[in-house]
Design a protein that fits this description.
Blueprint: H1 14-24, H2 29-49
């Protein structure tokens, strides 16, 4: 897994962003979204492999 990073502009529903911020704080938003995306990608890849 590479440490290279790139910026992306993402649009979230306000209520979802507020929930994320309440849970992890604004400063940890990116980390939370990256981890959630990795988990979902892994889940989808496992389902496709079946």
């Amino acid at each position: 897994m590479a440490n290279n990073k790139a910026k992306a502009h993402l649009v979230f529903p306000e209520d979802l962003l507020e929930s994320i911020d309440k849970l992890v704080g604004k400063r940890n938003r990116s980390k939370f979204v990256v981890e959630a995306a990795r988990k979902e990608l892994k889940r989808i890849q496992l389902l496709q492999a079946l």
